[in-house]
Amino acid sequence: MTTAREIMTAGVECAAAKDSVLDAAHKMTDLGVGALPICGTDERLKGMITDRDIVVKVLGQGKDPAQTTVGELAQGEAVTIGADDDAAEILRTMTAHKVRRLPVIDGHILVGVVAQADVARSLPDPQVGDLLAALSSD
Q: Is 91 left (phi over 0), alpha (psi -120 to 50) or beta?
């Protein structure tokens, strides 16, 4: 049984909820990633910010990325996966919520992220194909 802990990318960095969107964009650029978990001062996950969020929800709406905080983009409860959840649960969660990245938590502590690419590298082709099909459909 493959678990989230086995296929996740560990050591992820967060964008603090109080950080500006501009700071988050710089961090994404420096790290070479397209998304960052949003973490609050209580060390709990608040959501995810993606490069697409920055374009659509900030720039596309004429907001100033230097004045808009990352926390303003966090919506509702973050979709997560437990570190010891198995591959079937990862696929179900990604498919049900149509997300390409899942923060991995152990208790309430963020320990990594499972991205679509991690799934593609780690799971059999038919499962990956099913996930890609589900995420690509509307």
A: alpha
What is the CATH number for 129?
A: 3.10.580.10
**Tell me: the pLDDT tens digits for 99-126?**
888 999 998 889 999 988 888 777 665 5
Q: Enumerate long-range contacts of 101-109, CB under 8 Å, 24 or more apart.
A: 101/35, 101/48, 101/50, 102/4, 103/12, 103/37, 103/45, 103/48, 103/78, 103/79, 104/4, 104/5, 104/8, 104/80, 105/45, 105/80, 105/81, 106/5, 106/82, 108/43, 108/44, 108/45, 109/43
What residues contact residue 64 under an 8 Å CB cut-off, 6+ apart?
Answer: none
Q: How many domains does the chain fold into?
A: 1
* Containing structural domain, residue 36: 4-136
What is the amino acid identity at position 88?
Answer: A
pTM: 0.81
For 106, the token pair is 């152990």
Q: For 3-24, what is the mean pLDDT?
A: 93
Tokens of 7: 């296929």
